Amino acid sequence: MAYDVVVIGAGPGGYVCAIRAAQLGMRVAVVEKGKTLGGTCLNIGCIPSKALLYASEMFEEAGHGLGALGVVVAPPKLDLGAMMKHKDDTVAANVNGVAFLFKKNKIDSLQGEGRIAAPGRVVVKGADGAETTCEAKAIVVATGSDVARLPGIDIDEKQIVSSTGALALAKPPKSLIVVGAGVIGLELGSVWRRLGAEVTVVEFLDRILPGMDGEVAKQTQRLLEKQGFKFHLSHKVAAVEKTAKGVKATIEPAAGGAPLTLEAEVVLVAIGRRPYTQGLGLEALGVAMERGQVKIDDHFATNVPTVYAIGDVVRGPMLAHKAEDEGMALAEILAGQAGHVNTDVIPGVVYTSPEVASVGKTEEELKAAGVAYAVGKFPFTANGRARAMRHTDGFVKVLADAASDRVLGVHIVGFGAGEMIHEAAVLMEFGGSSEDLARTCHAHPTMSEAVKEAALAVAKRAIHV
User: Fold this and answer.
1) In the listed set 217, 237, 271, which residue is the last one of a domain according to the structure?
2) Whether pLDDT at 417 is above 90
């Protein structure tokens, strides 16, 4: 079979690349070893976790948040089976949606393990062991990432779980140890905390949410502690063993010192993810690698002709939307157009409650680069809509270049932060200033007014604080 493009991996990067290439008139095939399309994101990542996050938020709201609004209900009862069905139905709708789009765009879906046998040639090994060879003018590696593991700790997805097992627990654990204070650990810890678990987070670094703005991380930690989270920062996990009652973890100070023993029903290992490149034949082909990632140029090309790579297997944040933008850009490049991804304006969201959202540079990054900047902040406690909805936790922070006023970064902790961050992203894509944002009329009363007020605060002219 001959194609213009063969994509290996049907996650967000791969399927978006395939669809865009098909729209541009190319003959496209996608190789996927899983039984369904959509990759980690749709099947065991972004989509199912958000379904459980929302459902658990509604459970907590019914139990603790409605009375103050004059809505009196009986204490809610948890039907975990129904909640999991909601999650599974959400996954199915998204996965089936991708399959529909493949048919609509006449994309061939090849189930099996893909291996690049030579430049321009992909071998697909099916479940029955039979192999099919595809010829392609361009091969796109979009195989995503896998769970990073702790040496010596076996994940059984029952008592010692990864994010995959944490999305499918048979019952809420009475206690949960989360190893890693990054996005995945805090989100899934939030789900089970709302459903009754005592959550303890162990983090090797001296802070949560590595890579995010330091002030944002501190505020988020305080809010999570108010919700019942316990944190052991600057600690490493030395051992995890199963016991008659559950799991026992031995942790040690990162700088050395006496160990501490923690016990729980379940341990979630959430220390990050690593590029998934095994079995692709990259080493035999001579594809250059760098720290486990596929090395690419500015046009997503590897050092081997016809072979390209996008998404979690290449440099940059491991985010589904970053992979999607790269997939679209690469398809346009292959069609002779000018595809491009602005890596300075890729938003990130933590779907805790409240949410945390960020785009652009943090204060720490600007200080390290020696960039002079001005800061504008506005708290949601001074926002009328936030008061009306009883969602006054958090703030908006705008970082602007001290000389040009160009916005370099925006950081939000607050209800709906993941939706509010995008006006900052659009502003930054156009090289906008804090004054541009401050002079843009915002509807009243909205949470988004806090973004405008933070922009006004850059020049020390916020109105409502």
Assistant:
1) 271
2) yes
Per the rule left: phi > 0, alpha: psi between -120 and 50, beta: everything else, 459 is: alpha
Residues 252-301 pLDDT 10s: 999 999 999 999 999 999 999 999 999 999 999 999 999 999 999 999 99
Percent helix, percent strand, percent coil in the chain, to nearest 5: 35, 25, 40
Residues 98 and 38 sit within 8 Å (Cβ to Cβ): yes
Catalytic, out of 64, 299, 444, 464: 444
Per-residue model confidence as pLDDT tens digits over 344-359: 999 999 999 999 999 9
Give the three-class secondary structure for 189. helix
SS3 state of residue 154: coil
- Nearest to 223, CA basis, from 329, 353, 45: 353
Q: Are residues 130 and 249 in the same domain?
A: no
Q: How many helices (H) and strands (E) would you count in the chain?
A: 14, 24
pTM of the model: 0.96
Active site residue 444: yes
Report how far residue 153's alpha carbon sits from residue 451's, in angstroms, rounded to the nearest whole number: 44
Place of tokens 């959430």: 270
Range of the domain at 165: 160-271
Residue 323 has pLDDT above 90, yes or no: yes
Which of these three, 305, 334, 363, is where a domain ends? 334
Residue 150: strand, helix, or coil: coil
